[in-house]
Amino acid sequence: MVEVLAKNKDRSLRYEQTYNILNFENKLRGLEERPDYPKDKPWYFRPGKDTLVDYNIISNVDMKEHHFAAPEKRPEPGQKERERGKAIKVAPQREYNIVSNRYVEHHDAKEEANMEIQKAEAAKEFWKTRDYDPIRGQFYDNDKEKTFVEERDANAKVHGKDQVKKLPQTV
Asked: Is 64 within a domain?
């Protein structure tokens, strides 16, 4: 039983922290002189620093003073202190103004072009699935309707002749 518990404890220490998260006591106390004593677990973020700024983004205190790691394990500050101030970026002029709902230049021509494109796309989607008008009872395309009527008339001329051949000769 003790051997099984020891194996389970060893297995858990491979994947878990080596300290108790409630009271921060070292779980491996007394085993420091053993050759297989585990090394500190690596920090799994970017090597060195986790951020590009040299201050804690929550407290705004310099990383030299306010950091989660021990003082000797804290990352070195990056570049020299930058001059504070606002970096103003001017956005490029956009083609369409969403506030006025208008194009900045040539509004009417661009609106007309957009409407033509939308109509063409809608017509393309419409004709993908529609071929026959059930209300009028004919095809939308006049050429297709004409071809259908001609085929129907040709079939009506020979309709039933095959059935007559099946009747006995006495009839």
From this structure: no
State how many domains the chain has: 1
Tell me the pLDDT tens digit for each residue of 21-57: 788 788 877 777 877 776 665 545 445 556 677 777 7
Structure confidence at residue 156 (pLDDT): 92
Centre a 10 Å sphere on the Cβ of residue 157 and count the other Cβ atoms it contains.
Answer: 7
In a domain, 147, yes or no: yes
Coil/strand/helix, residue 77: coil
* 159 φ, ψ (degrees, to nearest 5): -65, 130
Prediction pTM value: 0.32
What is the token pair recorded at 121? 């796309």
**Strand runs (DSSP E) across the chain, as ranges?**
96-97, 102-103, 132-133, 138-139
98 lies in some domain: no
80 Cβ neighbours under 8 A, 6+ residues apart: none
Is residue 101 a part of any domain in this protein?
Answer: no
Placement of tokens 């389970």 in the chain: 8
Decide: 55 and 61 in contact? Cβ < 8 Å: yes
The structure tokens listed for 168 are 């006995």
Phi and psi, residue 133, nearest 5°: -95, 110
145: containing domain: 107-166
